[in-house]
Amino acid sequence: MIARGDSNKFIARQLDIAETTVKVHIQHIFRKLQLSSRVQVAVYAAAQGLG
């Protein structure tokens, strides 16, 4: 969903979770993948065939 450019609000609604929960999960993804932006996550996902 990040790779598609979906907003935190949209992701939260789709997954039926709080927007703050989405933010926390995204920060964990950044840390785990050693990335610093949503654009980098999107590029990573595309390179891995996840997007």
Summed up, the helix count is 3
Order of helices and strands: HHH
Number of domains: 1
Beta strands, count: 0
Mean pLDDT score: 95
What ranges have pLDDT less than 50 throughout 5 or more consecutive residues? none
Q: Strand-residue fraction?
A: under 5%
Shape: globular
Largest sheet: none
Report the span from N to C terminus.
8 Å
| Rg (CA only) | 11 Å
Describe this structure in words.
This protein is an all-alpha fold and 51 residues long. The chain has one domain. Helices cover 65% and strands 0% of the residues. It has three helices and no strands. Helix 1 crosses helix 2. The termini are close together.
List keywords for this structure.
51 residues; mainly alpha; 3 helices; 65% helix
Summarize the structure.
With 51 residues, the chain is mainly alpha-helical. It contains 3 helices and no strands.
Topology of this structure?
Elements: H1 8-15, H2 19-33, H3 38-47
Helix pairs in contact: 1-2
